[in-house]
Amino acid sequence: MATSKIQKLESVFDIKVDAKQFYDVYCNKTHHVAKACPDKVQSVEIHQGEWGTEKSIISWNFVYDGKACVGKEIVEEIDKENNKMSFRVLEADLLKQHYKSFKFILHVVPKKEGGSKVHWTLEYEKMNDNTPDPHTLMHLLLESSKDVEAYIISQG
């Protein structure tokens, strides 16, 4: 029997672009993620609310572990001043198969010497003890983040 507790997986890495620019793509222009990495994310659509607002519901069509997947998330918290936000998964193949709950937290911090530090946190509750930690999902998130960085640079 699984212990019913929230677990975390975190990753921090540097990017060359401004923190506000990077955060703006995920917060206010989330649909641009599909433009930045079309091989990983085919579409991002808003179903309820508006881009950049709490309680908005967003769906993602993406490729995960070689399979086409769909996920629906609600934007739980937005802190524009500190470039921080969180998405809670409402529906997804990921949830049905492995997790009772799942949340993505993004925090982008400007660096004094230029560029930014991106901090992704995955908070999740496993269905059972045999459920793997979401390392491959974190890898997909990191690759997509690097694609978003390249997209911002290409936009000048």
UniProtKB/TrEMBL annotation:
Lineage: superkingdom: Eukaryota
UniProt-listed InterPro entries: Bet_v_I/MLP, MLP-like_ligand-binding, START-like_dom_sf
Signal peptide (residue range): none
Protein name: Bet v I/Major latex protein domain-containing protein
Domain (Bet v I/Major latex protein) ranges: 4-155
Any one Pfam family match given in the protein's UniProt record, by short name: Bet_v_1
